[in-house]
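Long-time lurker. I teach an intro course on protein structure, and each term I like to show students one example going from raw sequence to a predicted 3D structure in token notation. This year I'd like something fresh instead of my usual example. Would anyone be willing to generate the tokens for the chain below so I can use it in lecture? Attribution to the forum is fine with me.
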Amino acid sequence: MNNSSFPDHPNRRRWLQTFGAGLGSFALADLINRPTADAAATSSLSSSAVRHIPRARRIIWLFQSGGPSQLDLFDHKPLLKQRHGTQLPAEVRKGQRLTAMSGNQSSLPLAGSPFRFEPHGDSGNVMSELLPRTAQIADELCIVRSMQTEAINHGPGVTFMQTGSQFPGRPSMGAWLDYGLGSENEELPSFVVMVTKGKGGQPLLSRLWGSGFLPSRHQGVRFRSGGDPVLYLGNPGGISAGSKRSMLNALQQLHEIKLQTSADPLIETRIAQHELAFRMQQSIPEATDVSSEPDHIFELYGEQARNPGSYAANCLLARRLAERGVRFIQLYHPGWDQHSGLRKGVTRQCTETDQASAALVADLKQRGLLDDTLVVWGGEFGRTNYCQGKLTATSFGRDHHPRSYSVWMAGGGVRPGTTYGVTDPWGYNVAEQGVHIHDLHATILHLMGIDHERLTFRYQGRRFRLTDVHGNVINGLLA
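-- Reply from a regular --
Happy to contribute to a lecture. Here you go:
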């Protein structure tokens, strides 16, 4: 039969487009008409990827940008003090590449830490005197001293830790989790980012919390200090909430007309983002208003918690967002790049972060949230055991060091009061129980109930995942 006799009969392509648009409309209507914030969470992940009951429901990542010196904070090496000023032995370095900043030095003098280390708590976790408040939560921490990465410079290093690849363009961990698990609160973003205000250091680009090749709705939403926490969220002057609602209704109708002829997922994403922004006009001011917090909470986090955009204020806000069901909360605190003046610089960084980091863990615990909230603290790599530049009696610096560094985790199913991994006596190479970035990511996804090998997205002819083709769950980190 000749289809030309039936001009209204759709061809196969048009039928498939219309069918796909219809399914999208059903999903969109469910999203827009969801009645309450505590409705069932939306999820993009096939149930086959959730292999077990999750230990953690949310993550707060305290990212210390620049590379904190593990040798001055968590990895005590008395041998470096004994050999202070002597040369790094060739058999320790093993020909490993150095950065351009110290690779041309004729001398690589070892630099012992000027800070005192002591064991703390029943666990005996050893920490520097620079971390007196963190020492008070020693029995909650799982300190990993054997982290490893291939990245030796900041750009690739931060990108690797955030996305599982040294190359830009991959989805960030928060985007992967939003894609996989969806939201627990339809009134707030599932993935929120905050950067300490007024800090210098290496640039932090928005691609670090981007969605990469995942749909754009999974990218992080940055909260800012002062004025509107989210840019362009408020209505322009003279526009009421009712007017905004009418405009969105009309826009939705136009988008649905477009969907009838073009099954474009970006259209659905745009509608969903408009609707979320409308709901956020009410939810975000409430979530970010800390004026209702009692004085003892500000005493716990430190007076800087009253200063919007400070690290302490962001930690307090992270707790408030965790209470309200935000899945992934990413804090960035730059300034840990001590190539010189380390003693003064690292002391300043610890003064800014120690109390609030410990307060966040303690606050989550006293509210019954720590058991299912995973807190992660650490940077993109560590620092060298030798001095960059000239070693003097009062000042020295450390270069980037990817071979071994430290992070800590608390809550969310990790083993508390433990130290995992050992570096050699020189603090240069991992001696036992190495943990690669891919292993850390695999373990975090495991704690969230996800098999890291099954959380994939097809792009450019292959299936990608956060851990690429690597990564093992580190059972020794699990409670």
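Some talking points for your students: The first helix runs from residue 12 to 32. The first strand starts at residue 58 and ends at 64.
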